[in-house]
Automatic annotation (TrEMBL):
Keywords: Oxidoreductase, Thiamine pyrophosphate. The keyword Oxidoreductase applies. Its EC number is 1.2.4.4. It comes from the Bacteria. CDD domains: TPP_PYR_E1-PDHc-beta_like. Pfam families: Transket_pyr, Transketolase_C. It comes from Luteimonas wenzhouensis. Its cofactor is thiamine diphosphate. This is 2-oxoisovalerate dehydrogenase subunit beta. Signal peptide: none annotated.
Amino acid sequence: MKAVAKHDAAGAGAAPAAKAITLIEAITQALAWEMRHDDSVVVLGEDVGVNGGVFRATAGLQQQFGPMRVLDTPLDETTIAGLTVGMAAMGMKPVAEAQFDGFIYPMLDHIICHAVRFRYRTRGRLTCPMVLRVPWGGGIRAPEHHSEANEAMFTNVPGLRVVMPSSPARAYGMLLAAIREPDPVIYFEPKRIYRQYKEVVPDDGEALPLDVCYVLRDGSDVTLVTWGAQVKETLEAAEQLEAEGISAEVIDVATLKPLDFATIAESVARTGRCVIVHEAPKTAGFGAEIAARLASESMYDLLAPVERVTGYDTHMPLFRLEMKYMPSTARIVEAAKRTLAAS
């Protein structure tokens, strides 16, 4: 089925009982809902049980569902990944946590060599319905290995969905959808915005569609494409541009793999210009894939070269330069103006 753009209406028509919650609270809410309604869902990871996780995403779940469904594991990411794949192959729906993005690398063997190959390897007799939750990105003044933006490497893995919500409502609905998927999902959580703001999220068990981009703001002069924590700065940039008479459309990619390129291409066909914004290093970042597809599939719609506003090709410069590393609202505005000046 062809993916279609979804205009975001978070909180619209919410029931009076629904609460305004943060992104991290939305994750907890989604996990609790799915565990109440599906006994095959289990949660596992380092400190997820008694302590409720390092970011408290699983706070209270072990008390509600018991230690057999919310499992504290050893501090061993390879074992966590192996357990998760094994549980999924046997019909459970495990939701594992990689405590930080930089801790995911020991899990790669199980993800790449096993999780994503079960359907292919068994000609569809077995699937691997697992979710790996990954606190992602910088901006919290954490030490080395705790502030990585490594999403691009996972978009190159066949059979793997790569998801990154950017708001409480999308975090709730997309996590429900990810758990219900029959194949593995990497669910990146932008930790810089875990508690940045609240919005009303009804706890109704309604999943949001995966594999589609979300059009957060309509515009006619330039298309701004982003995902994760950078949605905030991109929307701020669109507001600044509007104050100067420039109409910017903002697209939250949300699911990086498989990419809903049609929504991006349709927007660029209207605006003729595109700025791609992401926190990860520029070289071979996922923005390069979007830019390459625009060059090959939307070349005659472009009125100016595609701009990329990204992190730099270095490790995160801890701590004082951390916020300088990440794309700022000012850098996004400048890039948008360059596209307008190019034609």
